[in-house]
Design goal:
It is built from nine helices and 20 strands. By secondary structure, it is of the alpha/beta class. It is globular and about 65 Å long. The two termini are 30 Å apart.
């Protein structure tokens, strides 16, 4: 087990539109959306009806298989609408905020004095149990399980990701309380990884009672899955839990105030963003609230909740995801270019393979859009994946096993160690333009179905 990790493989995508370290707006949305799809492994059962009054922390959804796992409202107000899709699938619950800030009082707690059972009970009743993600498979953690250990990544290397040293600089006390509480849930300790380049200056190095790691390298060095693989890889039969730094702060806020408060700074980023910066907001706000940050008059802007590699395209009328603290605004690349492959002298296009001369300008940022520049083609077997993936697995063979539905080979080639986000760069550099993340998720879904 190493406390200083230096990763050699990876790729920092030079995407234009980083958020300036300033707060440009405070969003007080009229409508907040709770989307069950944000919680993998959660089968929703509706606990409210349209017109019901709720407080911040009031139960809205429960899991059908494990009814003690709840989704609670982030605001006080009224249930405005229940949105269903095909076969009455629950897509979202819209809550109209009364902007009064009323909340369920769970009582101020001393994290150090709580037992594991008390921590678990508080997280379940408040709805913040959903912050705990179980690996393998990336699903909501099982309250009946005891993880080998818990992992937190205190930085992100995703394209244009929010800077935690800015967004959470005033949350150190809450992060400490959250870490103290979660450490009660495992005997293997809470692993806390910070960025090596800023380790001494970041306030996050002050967090105590954790197993501290410093990590350096290009993206995906900030992915918690990559850190787990390089600290203590997951073996068959083992379970670990992860929690984002954002949600760790929310857990600490619950302990220190007794109330559910999911407020966060959200980075508005991307080549299509005007004056990219941060906004104070809540999860579930509508993208209409940030209309002034982009020109979508032609309908050619893609609104992504999350980063450009792993985020979800939600549309101009969509909502910020429960776990997201970033919106990426990209141009919808529908233009076609004649013989583009035969123009290597272009300096306005980025190329990982050095097909263009962009490699001569390592510090340049590019307005990369969503254009695939061609369609899917035959699966080319090469070593391109391994150049950007700092995990000791065989990604090509893993993806082929997922395509074939071969469970034995999925186990053999590392399905327990990765989630789609960990292979997002493989999708970006893939010469065959395969949807690697979707293929891997299909493989994980098959594992859950067959191994249950």
């Amino acid at each position: 087990m190493s406390n200083n990790i230096n990763l050699k493989r990876g790729l920092d995508i030079p995407l234009a539109g980083a958020a300036a370290l300033k707060t440009g707006k405070t969003i007080e949305p009229d409508i907040i959306a709770l989307k069950p799809a944000d919680f993998k492994g959660f089968t929703p059962r509706l606990l409210v009806r349209e017109g019901d009054k709720v407080l911040a922390g009031s139960p809205v959804l429960a899991d059908k298989q494990r009814p003690d796992i709840l989704v609670t409202s982030p605001v006080s107000g009224t249930v405005e609408q229940v949105i269903r899709g095909e076969k009455r699938k629950l897509l979202a619950v819209l809550i109209k905020s009364d902007k009064a800030g009323k909340a369920v009082d769970f009582g101020v707690k001393n994290a150090a004095a709580l037992s594991a059972a008390e921590v678990k009970d508080l997280l379940l009743k408040s709805g913040l149990w959903l912050a705990l993600v179980q690996r393998p498979y990336g699903i909501v953690a099982d309250p009946e399980a005891t993880p080998r250990s818990i992992f937190v990544s205190a930085f992100s290397t995703a394209p244009l990701a929010a800077d935690y040293d800015f967004t959470l600089k005033d949350e150190i006390a809450n992060i400490q309380a959250g870490a103290d509480a979660l450490s009660k849930l495992t005997k293997g300790g809470l692993h806390f990884s910070i960025k090596a380049q800023t380790a001494s200056s970041s306030p996050l190095h002050k967090v105590e009672n954790v197993i501290l790691h410093t990590v350096s390298g290009k993206h995906p060095a900030g992915n918690v899955g990559v850190q787990i693989a390089n600290i203590a890889p997951i073996r068959k039969g083992e379970t670990v839990w992860t929690v984002s730094l954002l949600m760790l702060a929310a857990i600490g806020r619950l302990l220190n105030t007794g109330k559910v408060n999911l407020a966060r700074k959200v980075a508005i980023t991307g080549p299509e963003a005007k004056d990219p910066c941060y906004v104070d907001a809540l999860p579930g706000f509508c993208m209409k609230e940030i209309a002034e940050f982009t020109d979508n008059s032609k309908g050619d802007v893609r609104f992504v909740s999350g980063d450009a590699l792993t985020g979800t395209a939600v549309g101009a009328d969509g909502y910020l995801g429960f776990f997201d603290d970033q919106v990426t605004l990209l141009h919808e690349g529908t233009e076609r270019e004649l013989l583009g492959w035969a123009k290597p002298f272009r300096t306005s296009q980025f190329s990982f393979s050095k097909a263009y001369f962009s490699w001569l300008f390592p510090k340049k940022k590019y307005p990369i859009d969503t254009n695939l520049h061609g369609g899917p083609r035959a699966f080319v077997v090469s070593d391109v994946y391994s150049k950007v993936l700092p995990i000791d697995i065989f990604p090509v063979y893993l993806i082929k096993a997922c395509l074939a539905g071969d469970i034995d080979n999925m186990e053999k080639f590392g399905i327990y160690e990765v989630l789609p986000e960990d292979l997002a760069l493989c999708e970006f550099v893939d010469p065959s333009k395969n949807e690697i993340q979707s293929i891997l998720q299909d493989g994980i879904n098959l594992m859950i179905k067959e191994m249950a």
